[in-house]
Amino acid sequence: MERHDHLQVLDGGADPMRQARRQRRLCEDAGIAAGGVIPFTADDITAGTETELATAVSGGADTSDLAHALQCSPHAASLTGAARAALETWLDTNTDSVWEHSWLRVTHRRLHPRTRAQLERDLAGRGDRSEFEVDADTLRLPASYVLRLALVDALAGLDLPAALAPVVARLPECLVNDNTAPELLSTHIVGGRGPGGLGAAVARENAQRFLLVQLLAAYANQRFGLEDSGQRLNVYGAPNPPPRLRQLSRLLPADFYRELFMNPCLSGFADGAAKRDYMRLCHSTLSRSRQHAHARLVGAGIGGAKVVERLVCDTSLLNNGVHLSLGSNHLSAAFAATGGAAAEKYLGDLAAKLVEHFLPLFAGLYSAAPARLTASELRGGRALGFLPNELSAPFLRLTWQSWRRKAGLLAALKGDFVPDARLLDYFAALPSLPGHAALDGRPGNGERLKAALAAHGLYSRDMTVYTPYRLRERARMGFSGFEGRHHSLFPSFADDLAPAASLQALVTALAYRYVASGAFTHADIPDDPDTESERRQLLFAAAAGLPVAYVRRATRNRFLLQVLARTRRTRPSKRHPQYFKVWLDDYRQALAELLAADGTPLLDAEATATLADLRARLAQPLERSSAGVLTRAVLAELGAKNPLDVDATTFNAAAEHYYRDGLRHRQLAEGIEAFTQLLGDTARRARSGAGAALGDGLRQLSGERGPQQFVALTARSVARETAGPGTLRAWIGLVLLNVAAVEAA
User: What is the mean pLDDT of residues 129-135?
Assistant: First the structure.
């Protein structure tokens, strides 16, 4: 691709017709002209995910590393009076003996020699090594690293064919960490051509990966002697910070809290110590952002002018979600040419802005993070979380006023309930500033925006640019595509993640169809802070469960006006005459109609089924939405019918318990089912003669019985978590064979 002079002029206020002509030329150069290739469709698309999980260690205070760290810290020793009593009460009231995100204590002698060698390589040269060494034989390690050691240990005990060595070496690299807990990368990239299309492939890979983590946790509990020493590791999906750790964060200085829970990054990074410093930077930056959020609330006329003197602990980095990345083979090849990066940025930013309008379809409907809020959280705007840093003052005020009307008089006594608290309690989207926007199509705009925000004390220029739908540039990532960061917890891989992945692909393909045709340009979706906030408040309104949002009657967002033209109830607001009152259910329905009408050329069998699933969720949100499914399950544990019938502490604690127990076992069963299906494909491939190493591996791991019979005989013990180390090791090896078979196909 040649570099074009017209890329130098990227004025967001330029003539839309001129921009449309320029846009079509760029698309023609990339081979995606209207009527030609449409990126992110079945024959072009690839997908991978990063899944953040929660951890908990069951055991008494005498065996808990977290309890020991609290009791023996210099900070605890310095406490007196009420502060000391509050911390002791927190320790003594752990009636379930569950310590969320506690580290674990592992003895050297329980590790395979190869595992000890790997451990030594990871610790070598680290100046903070002493933090992980309790004594000559005992280490204290974060759960994410224990999982990685468990995989290394299990594979060390398997004599797999040499041809599988590349997968054996690569699989541990899929186990890394986020700021606190395990982060799992896809074991393999999937495409859209297999049975069920892209969504089914994404779901199978995620389900099997969740099974792998459960196998590793069970293996570590037994092989590393964790259970024998009074520590039992659980790993599960939980989107919100645990209630007890929220309580703890109010008892500790920010620096001490940070050191208890920030991951030390012992593996998976070229410089783990430097990465650990980055984690500290993220935490301290977000803690300061909480203070700035309060100041911006006051500036917007919300809340009192109370000064926050202490740098508060920030628990937002305990929020966990799923980042679903989509790649385009065609765009990756097209933008590899000279000058392709500038075109990729210009077109990709516009596509990202278009997709952002569709994100309210996902929040609560496909993934969720249900939470009860206390009455105190609905006073002074505390429930708004990071929204003061993400929305301009007019839309922040409108959102808060809509929320207060939704909560009503009961809020003073009971608080409120929201379907996706994670999207409110995390810095999900950097806000544009006048003259600085991350999605205006200009190369380097994200870096310039971070610098401007840093000057205002809102962010750090050394952190990643956060946007709800982030462009993944080929030069940096090795592929051209997008990362969806708006997904929280999926109740089911097959029933929720699969259609969500298909819907994300459909929306992205439609966005590029609009881009290629020149139907919408950067000028049609301006990058000023109010226009950006206008579209993003719709996502946050959906996350908060608000029935209405507001759009300026004089908005310059032409795409948003096209969506509103399909709504049935949008009208000028009586309270706010300069705005349209937009009902969220109406807006979502209009988006579904737009997908069906403008996406007709994209509607293959998978996309058609995706739209049918979307319509069903919109028609029956309480029964079909992810928020509804998760909420009903939590209420069933409590014997209640409505979240507002129980206090916030009780509901949120029950939700955490459900994620750790009931949902984890349901998703483990899904993982076993997906693993079994993939194993059948692996066995057929081995029998066909296409993979001799696969056949040798299957025989070694399952013996004369064959893989299907072996799995059938041992599946119950795996599901009940009673399988021994030998069985667990064999299953881990079979997962590896499945990965190798998919990659070789």
Answer: 91
- 31 φ, ψ (degrees, to nearest 5): 75, 25
User: Residues 549-566: what's their mean pLDDT?
Assistant: 97
Say whether both 641 and 722 belong to one domain: no
Query: What does the alpha-carbon distance between residue 667 and residue 511 come to, in Å, rounded to a whole number?
Result: 33
Residue carrying structure tokens 């990709």: 348
Contact 581, 570 (CB under 8 A): yes
What number of helices (H) and strands (E) belong to the chain? 29, 17
Ramachandran angles phi, psi of 338, nearest 5°: -60, 130
Same domain, residue pair 602 and 454: yes
* Residue 72 included in any domain: no
- Which structural domain, as residue segments, surrounds residue 712? 54-59+97-236+698-744
579 shares a domain with 452? yes
Dihedral, 314, 315, 321, 326 alpha carbons, nearest 10? 20
* The domain boundary residue, chosen from 631, 646, 661: 646
Say whether pLDDT at 312 is over 80: no
Does residue 459 share a domain with residue 551?
Answer: yes
Report how far apart, in Å, the C-alpha atoms of 13 and of each of 439, 449, 525 are: 14, 19, 10
In a domain, 421, yes or no: yes
Give the end of a domain, one of 628, 646, 664: 646
Mean pLDDT score, 131-151: 95
- Is the CB of residue 295 less than 8 Å from the CB of residue 436? no
Identify whether residues 453 and 309 lie together within a single domain.
yes
| Under 8 Å between Cβ of 467 and 439 | yes
Owner of token pair 């009307």: 405
Q: What percent of the chain has pLDDT over 70?
A: 96
Q: What is the pTM of this model?
A: 0.95
In this structure, are 32 and 129 located in the same domain? no
How far separated are the first and last CA of the chain, in Å rounded?
32
Both tokens of residue 202? 């994404």
Task: Record the tokens describing residue 466, joined without a space.
Answer: 């956060």
Residues 229 and 291 in one domain: no
Q: Is 547 exposed, middle or buried (0-12, 13-18, 19+ CB in 10 A)?
A: middle
Which residue has 């069903």 as its token pair?
616
Q: Strand, helix or coil at 232?
A: strand
Alpha helix locations (H) across 224-360?
243-249, 254-261, 272-299, 329-334, 340-356
Q: By the 8 A CB rule, do 71 and 116 touch?
A: no
Segment 622-629 long-range contacts (CB within 8 Å, at least 24 positions apart): 625/364, 625/365, 625/366, 625/368, 625/419, 626/364, 626/365, 626/366, 626/367, 626/368, 626/489, 626/490, 626/491, 626/496, 627/364, 627/365, 627/368, 627/370, 627/419, 627/420, 627/545, 629/491, 629/492, 629/496
Say if residue 387 is in the same domain as residue 536. yes
**Which residues is 98 bridged to in the sheet?**
58
pLDDT tens digits for range 337-387 = 767 999 999 999 999 999 999 999 999 999 999 999 999 888 877 899 899
> Of how many residues is the chain composed?
745
Residue 350, in any domain of the structure: yes
pLDDT of residue 670: 98
* Inside any domain, residue 688: no
Which two three-digit tokens encode residue 488? 């929280």
Q: Which of 715, 742, 708, 675 is nearest to 212 (CA)?
A: 675
